[in-house]
Amino acid sequence: MAEDKIRILVVEDEEDILALLHFNLMKVGYQVDCAAHGEEALAAVAANRPDLILLDLMLPGIDGMEICRRLRNDKDTSEIPIIMLTAKGEEEDVVSGLEMGADDYVSKPFSIKVLLARVQTVLRRKSTAGEKLDTEELTYGELYIHSGRSQVLVAGKTVDLTFTEFRVLEALASRPGWVFTRYQIVNAVRGEDYAVTDRAVDVQIAGLRKKLGSCGSYIETVRGIGYRFREDL
Ligand code: CA
User: Fold this and answer.
1) What separation in Å is there between the alpha carbon of 58 and the centre of ligand 1?
2) Which of 63, 68, 152, 153 has its CA 20 to 30 A from that of 169?
3) pLDDT of 32-50, one tens digit each?
């Protein structure tokens, strides 16, 4: 029997939220598995490999962070996209989760529409992973970036960026919609004999926005987490 539906595992201990997600994901055509705690989640992943996991962080027993760590450290599961479901005030956990390899997060309470959009975005990213960074030229609205030439134009006019500013912009713009923690930005820029601290990232972003002028708003601050290049351009 051919089973070509995309399979999503929802891990959530709050029954109402679990039922809501189950219903709505089924309604748009996904195959949905549910788990109410960590052990159940790991068993479900082993039994039927999901195409994507919606993972609540605060769970009884093995918590979401630990599940994320275990999945990422196992080569059979390391590629499964994970979207964290987080509560208000869990920004530090979001940062840790993203750095551990979670793909995205959605804060509770969330709208189903927003959640479904995030699911689609993450699934699309995974299907095009690897193809994306080959391109040397990026164009978004009035912004043009040429990686090989380290060139940036806004509305056709050259913008002089420092080397680090360019690398920060390039990292963010190569993955629109993707939230980067400060640490991830530091990592993207590092390796060029340049010490960049968390605080310095904020300074770089501020300088970058100023120089980009009308395109400065393309870089969004994600409060408590880091930065993101807009994907709706
Ligand atoms: Ca919970």
Assistant:
1) 4
2) 68
3) 999 999 999 999 999 999 9
